Amino acid sequence: MQHTQRIENKGLYEAHLEHDACGIAMLANINGIESHTIVSQALTALERLDHRGGHDAENDVGDGAGILTRIPHKLFETEWSENGKTFVEVGMYGVGMFFLPADDSERERSEMMIERMIGKTGLEIFGWRTVPTNNRSLSQQAKATQPVIKQVFVLSPYEKPEDIRFERKLYLLRKKIEKALINEGIQKDEAFYLVSFSSRTIIYKGLLLPKQLKAFYLDLRNERYETGMAMVHNRFSTNTFPSWHRAQPNRYLMHNGEINTINGNMNWMNAREPLFQTDMLNMKDISPIVDVDGSDSAMFDNTLEFLVLSGWSLPHAMMMMVPEPWLDNERMDEERKAFYQYHSSLMEPWDGPAALAFTDGKQIGACLDRNGLRPARYILTEDDFLCVSSEVGVVDIPEEKIIRKDRLKPGQMLLADLDKGCLYEDEELKQLIISERPYKDLVEKNIIPIEKVIANDSYDYELKADSSSVLRKQSIFGYTLEELEKVFVPMILNGKEPTGSMGYDAPLALLSRQSQLLFHYFKQKFAQVTNPPIDAIREESITSMEVMLGGNSNLLLSKQQVDKKIRLQTPILTGKDIVKIKNLRSNNWNTATISTLFPVNGNLKESLDQLLQKVENEVNNNFSIIILSDYHVNKENAAIPSLLVVSAVHHHLIRKGLRSKVSLIVESGEPREVHHFAALLGYGANAIHPYLVYKSIPSLIDQENNKVTIEEAFDNYVNAITKGVLKILSKMGISTVQSYIGAQIFEAIGISKEVIDCYFPRTSSKIGGLVLEDISRETCERHNGAFSKESLELDIGSDFHWRREGELHLYQPKTIHTLQQAVRTGSYDLYKKYSAMINDEVGKHTSIRGLLGFKKSSQSIPIDEVEPMESILKRFKTGAMSFGSISKEAHEALAIAMNRIGGMSNSGEGGEDPERFTPLENGDSKCSNIKQVASGRFGVTSHYLIHSKEIQIKMAQGAKPGEGGQLAGHKVTPEVAKTRGVTPGIELISPPPHHDIYSIEDLAQLIYDLKNANSKARINVKLVSSSGVGTIAAGVAKAKADVILISGYDGGTGAASRSSIKHTGMPWELGLAEAQQTLKLNGLRHKVTLETDGKMMSGRDVIIAALLGAEEYGFSTLPLVALGCVMMRVCHLDTCPVGIATQNPELRKNMVGTADQVVNLMRFVAQEIREYMAELGYKSLDQLIGKTDLLKQEEPDHWKTKRIDLSSILAVSSLAKKRNKEEQDHELERNLDSRKLLPLYDKCFNQTQRLDAVLPIENMNRSVGTLVGSKVSEMFGENGLPDDQINYHFKGSAGQSFGAFLPKGITLSLEGDANDYVGKGLSGGKIIISPTAKSTFLAEQNIIIGNATFYGATSGEAFISGIAGERFCVRNSGAQVVVEGIGDHGCEYMTGGRVIILGDVGKNFAAGMSGGISYVLVKVLEAFKKKCNQELVYVERLDEEEDVCFLKNKLKQHVQYTNSKVAKEILENWEYNYPNFVRVIPKKYKAILTEQHKSKQYS
């Protein structure tokens, strides 16, 4: 028996890349009074969070549910007494909860081992208890993996109940038992798991649905089961291999979200462990502290448990692990800042979107991540009941008993001390902990800014070398003229990383015939679905690039003085900095410089081993800073690739237990691009000195006619790299570089397993590749070439632009010209000539699919027997290119062409003119049948969504996964602005994340919203290829997407930084194959359609995509080339010479391409597909889907590819048979709209009368009003119905997305409260929310709606009597909303509409706001200005009559609709109060309005 379904690595699937999210609830009686009521309420809350958990394809098996409580003493005492045994008093025993093997002999062996270890620990067993269970409600799959569940009772040797020493002893015992059983071959993850072992708490959990938990565990239904607190958790795993033991809560903690930095946190904990010393615990018995096979939640729990049991208080440990953003917080006092700075020198943050609940049995608390990316609502009652949950409304509490409704704000904490009967809120709790020590003094004494370190040598470090030696070193490290011109110059002049467009069509590093740096074999990973990227530009206040240099000692001595550190504002060191550091000689710091060179004719492995030994020796000699330098590279000695050096040293020191004693600085001539620095930091560098960059800058300044000084150039370069690295770490959802260092958030492509395992452990590398000898060869060939050239000249370079003697490119003059001639003339022969160039000449050396061939078939058939072209064409799509990024002519040509052939075009994220929804007289249609929903939500209305056959959620795009988009103001013409619902001439920005998708269950909610908005449309989720995309795809399938698109990194027509275009994401071949394999392993493949795109060039590419699993195929660049694109790569500059990627009316006249040419292209590709099918002997494309056995790996033709192994791509799953397609069950017929609202609506319209209805509502009622709204939009079009024609009044707690995409004519009013996403995409409707009349609290002081409300609203009205959570009205473009207070990041990226706020606002208000107006009631103007991000806006007093009248009228309406007390008071003394309002208006928007006003006056 195995009680886990976890499948080990198979094909491209890697088990450690699983992700999860969940719904959580924490309940407590603050006084610790125990009752069964809390158990019942907790289980009710769990069931009401069912929609936040995951299920298998048949909805029979949950991903895991559980409950943690205090030990139910009354239950156990009664039961033992009934069995004739006198029980001990509460707290004088511990209970071990075990999952044991079902096999009798294995279980007996396990129990004997447990008893033996208890005896060895000096403890006495009171007895064993079999936990009563009933598995009748479980599916066969769950039953098959069900363990035997038993409890062992152990007596305390101490006099004091619940003695912390007993807890430590039980902790040690648990660790010993786990080790002993593993040593006996009883593997923890398969046949045994120790759920909990404590004298205070106990956990009941399993592979269960929420409703099954109390049905399965009979104890939970027993009235004698009493507790003073409970934590419940419902898990959503990205696959269906969840197990009994991975269910939560864990022993100290439960977690909703994801720890993005987990690899780094785990590495650093392992590095610190050898230095841990404490009298409280025997370190030998508990090592390793962190279970590396656990989930991120489990690893966090391991660390928290260890810290608490080694002497840290529970809240203190949580404050260190999850610090609030402090560095740039102007409102935080200096003592609190000092506290966090002090602890930042001890431990890096565990960073990521997370709501965490934690307990040691005596205290119970909750906290939120620094960016507030998960919901955590709470209520407090008059009888001291506290409930913190992912949603409001999960427990039934009479409204009149509730004295407070609130939420945890970003970085906040809440703690109930059950022994003391106290509830500590954030400010009081943290002040108690901070006041324990003089942290400000400690920081001033022990953390020294680099600026205050005195240099002994003069500073001319960068300027010593002559130009010839600089040129020589540039050649050694592979510099090119293209790089200097296109990368360096923009950075030194503008302080920004350069931008490019049109994707990447040159070879991967492993396929390139040109010399490549080791950096280029590594790709950046990024956040998609399971966690969000963060906005490092608009939400910069939560980020930090600060680095500490110096060693660490024993973390457990929390009263010690911190080891002295040098503080850097950025990890990028200047010459001044490195001179200071090199000369450090003191009791606190000693610096050693170690050469990283190796003999050109020597052995790289031997040199690396010698280097590692030197570093180890120096650390043992108490050097706390090691500089790894290739500065003295010369003809005889080449530089070991700096990435290899730093990762090898980093991991060697971890293995030796020395890493935390030292900081590593890389001094190298190799790094110069943003990607290089990010990789060095990611693999363990604490700081980097790119000396050759600084030596190269003076000559570049001369070439640029001294536009900047040398000092300015240096500063600009450091600033560009620092911002670029910040963007990269933010793409993964990481806020601080300290957490990024050593986190290894990269994957390799073209590096062998032996190199990865030895020097880059836990890095994914799916297809093998270079061994150490190959890395040496590539390095030495480049090195020797620099010394063999007769004249010192750099290669011209051809990375992004094709050059005749340079790098291969898929798009080069001959391929572009031949294709364009073919589609213009309709010549299939010319197309075949083009195709031969791509398939035979270029493709073989540029892409993974070029290494694949078809196995010869003796079963070829006549082409007449192959399915017709028309059915193949239906599988074709054009990619998401918005109107705005490309011209109207190009956008409409694509739509017309795809509609003609029966395929589908994609609107992109720019909306679509409703006039295009009506077919043309000749039968053509300009309507894009795929409507995209991206993070900007431009033009996303109910009417827009209803006119689609497919709705695509863009989680990422190939050109820049993890980043947002932008459209320059000069491209926002009146026509573009009308389509997007914005003001002409103002730059438009899409935020990096969807602000309603911070986790997998959030994506499930948006899918549900969109299915309600158009029940006939398929929901498509666009992902970008990356290792782990298979498990994400499984999660997306479980979230009930209909189509999953896997995009390749090399596609993408959008503008992006060059490092993103080239170095982020993976080829679609890898991602598609992994998705196919993982979905089959999960039994989910039949539920979804797989699609792929990314530099699809020919019918051969489509056939390979089909064989790897894709059923539908997207083309983006290719149809643009068919329309006339010549790959100038200036799309972002609005200077496209052929009129495609421009809004310039003169340039648009140059577009000569037509829909006919795109039709010809698609028909040519389809015909080529038919020819391949005939050759392979298959009649239909369906028969080819997933037939990887028809592919083979071609023989290598270059030394770099000889060790590539594509067997993992071609792996065939034997675990899952092919199943007939099944549609996802979106459960629309069971929602409130279908059951109640639609019947009322239909009845009303049969009688053509106004509708008024009153209904109850609860948190499980989600997307209420959306389905009805879709019917209104379908029937009445964009203008909807007259105002208030349909009125639904609700009472209770509304679920997520209340009123999403609500069109004009529908009014939803609510007495009660609502969860996240109220009014999302509001499309003209009206929403009114106010507390119930029974409420006793002040509405204006309590939370009434959740986070990300009115996100992407385009029109309509809302009146909210109470406070909204974080990110209120993000990307509002037309709605008018009144609210009585908001959280952080309000009105971010707002482009239109008007917002009235009658109370406090959180920090970073109006960040990125480019349109619309906000009116805010301000008590203290200067305090408000500190919270307002004034980069783009003015903060003004109201001095225009129009504003005053608008405000007064809206407040009157607010009183009318909500009976708002605060609005009444303002109106009653209007002349006194209205001057306290300020107007927040974007600067450019105001200028445009002023100009428009002048024009009207002139007219």
From TrEMBL:
<keyword id="KW-0479">Metal-binding</keyword>
<feature type="domain" description="Glutamine amidotransferase type-2">
    <location>
        <begin position="22"/>
        <end position="419"/>
    </location>
</feature>
<dbReference type="Pfam" id="PF00310">
    <property type="entry name" value="GATase_2"/>
</dbReference>
<keyword id="KW-0288">FMN</keyword>
<dbReference type="InterPro" id="IPR002489">
    <property type="entry name" value="Glu_synth_asu_C"/>
</dbReference>
<keyword id="KW-0028">Amino-acid biosynthesis</keyword>
<dbReference type="InterPro" id="IPR013785">
    <property type="entry name" value="Aldolase_TIM"/>
</dbReference>
<dbReference type="InterPro" id="IPR002932">
    <property type="entry name" value="Glu_synthdom"/>
</dbReference>
<dbReference type="Pfam" id="PF04898">
    <property type="entry name" value="Glu_syn_central"/>
</dbReference>
<comment type="similarity">
    <text>Belongs to the glutamate synthase family.</text>
</comment>
<keyword id="KW-0315">Glutamine amidotransferase</keyword>
<dbReference type="GO" id="GO:0046872">
    <property type="term" value="F:metal ion binding"/>
</dbReference>
<dbReference type="InterPro" id="IPR006982">
    <property type="entry name" value="Glu_synth_centr_N"/>
</dbReference>
<keyword id="KW-0314">Glutamate biosynthesis</keyword>
<dbReference type="GO" id="GO:0004355">
    <property type="term" value="F:glutamate synthase (NADPH) activity"/>
</dbReference>
<dbReference type="Pfam" id="PF01493">
    <property type="entry name" value="GXGXG"/>
</dbReference>
<keyword id="KW-0285">Flavoprotein</keyword>
<dbReference type="InterPro" id="IPR029055">
    <property type="entry name" value="Ntn_hydrolases_N"/>
</dbReference>
<keyword id="KW-0003">3Fe-4S</keyword>
<dbReference type="InterPro" id="IPR036485">
    <property type="entry name" value="Glu_synth_asu_C_sf"/>
</dbReference>
<dbReference type="InterPro" id="IPR050711">
    <property type="entry name" value="ET-N_metabolism_enzyme"/>
</dbReference>
<keyword id="KW-0408">Iron</keyword>
<keyword id="KW-0274">FAD</keyword>
<dbReference type="GO" id="GO:0006537">
    <property type="term" value="P:glutamate biosynthetic process"/>
</dbReference>
<protein>
    <submittedName>
        <fullName>Glutamate synthase large subunit</fullName>
        <ecNumber>1.4.1.13</ecNumber>
    </submittedName>
</protein>
<keyword id="KW-0411">Iron-sulfur</keyword>
<keyword id="KW-0560">Oxidoreductase</keyword>
<comment type="pathway">
    <text>Amino-acid biosynthesis.</text>
</comment>
<dbReference type="InterPro" id="IPR017932">
    <property type="entry name" value="GATase_2_dom"/>
</dbReference>
<dbReference type="GO" id="GO:0019676">
    <property type="term" value="P:ammonia assimilation cycle"/>
</dbReference>
<dbReference type="Pfam" id="PF01645">
    <property type="entry name" value="Glu_synthase"/>
</dbReference>
<dbReference type="GO" id="GO:0051538">
    <property type="term" value="F:3 iron, 4 sulfur cluster binding"/>
</dbReference>
